[in-house]
């Protein structure tokens, strides 16, 4: 048995259990992750995040060799015990945890480099939260192109085409036409993808705003089924994928800044040019809720 001092955090309702294990001494097995994340017998969370020094694990050592400033690594696991490449809400909550725990100093306007399985992510502290530069993105996901995925979901009248988006982890985005279609979805059932990506995918269902653009900013509403976690109140990378897909569908005149409304609140997605191609950032709140001790 292992004693953990943990902190519960959330970003627009996407919730996480975080703990510090700088030297990677905790044997973080899938069974332990499932026990921690269980909402009846554990703390309860969409994911578990371990704060580990980058030079303490193989994935991190490769990154810190590239950028010595990325001293901390976000070791993220879904509630079912599987590993995820990236979590857009989780990495903002991770930054809050590092700063509030005294593990890093980060003033408003300053940027922190964090290692992840997606690579190095730069996070800027803002007055009301954090903004994470999630780097380059791409159309399509493993096992399929950009727009050849059919999506079937419970209480959706027929299969709909989905757009594959890669933002470090895989997503398929489906456009819906009405509020009723979005509200009536039963996402306690896993949406079926055809063809199915080998590693699975997060699936976002998006309703464009009316109007779609207001004051130069795009507006969409989204629900999501997260791979390994089920339906969540928010998914950061899902919000990013949904905004990218909607801009793609809207055409060249569409804006590069989007407000994405999810059941847990609102996040902001921004696309911008960088030396290595177009990047996308995610900004929004990140809060720590409570701390405690747990035996796993």
Descriptive overview:
By secondary structure, the protein is α+β, with helices and mostly antiparallel strands. The chain has 5 helices and 19 strands. The chain has helices spanning 30-37, 58-66, 88-100, 179-184, 236-250; strands at residues 3-11, 14-20, 47-53, 72-78, 111-116, 119-126, 129-136, 138-139, 149-152, 160-166, 170-175, 192-194, 202-214, 217-226, 230-232, 257-262, 265-274, 277-284, 287-295. The protein has a 19-stranded mixed β-sheet that branches. A hairpin with a 2-residue loop joins strand 6 (119-126) and strand 7 (129-136). The radius of gyration is 18 Å and the shape is globular. The protein starts with a strand and ends with a strand. 44% of the residues are buried.
List keywords for this structure.
296 residues; alpha+beta; 5 helices; 17% helix; globular
Spans where pLDDT lies below 50 across 5 or more residues: none
* Range of strand content: 35-45%
**Cα distance, first to last residue?**
5 Å
Largest sheet data: 19 strands, mixed
Average pLDDT, rounded to a whole number, is 95
Shape: globular
Total strands: the figure is 19
Compressed to H and E, one letter per element, the order equals EEHEHEHEEEEEEEHEEEEHEEEE
Number of separate helices: 5
SS class: alpha+beta
- Integer-rounded radius of gyration: 18 Å
Helix content: 10-25%
